[in-house]
Design goal:
about 70 residues, mainly alpha, 2 helices, about 0% strand
């Protein structure tokens, strides 16, 4: 999973600026899409197939000798 990056929204001007509005809207849309992608990934990881595979991998790793 990629690292979460923080992007500050542009500061509002005293007067309405359509370009600033479009940039702000797009940044918010991208943030919502990123959140949706993370939720979808989490739901997939909860599925039985991946969950069983994850448990098996953890079990196999516990049996490894360290050092």
């Amino acid at each position: 999973m990629a690292d979460i990056k923080t992007i500050a929204l542009p500061l509002p001007s005293q007067e309405f600026d359509s370009n600033n509005e479009a940039v702000t809207r797009r940044l918010i849309e991208q943030a919502i899409e990123d959140i949706n992608a993370r939720i979808t990934l989490t739901d997939k990881m909860k599925s039985t197939t991946i969950s069983k595979a994850s448990r098996r991998q953890q079990f196999l790793l516990m049996g490894m000798k360290h050092g």
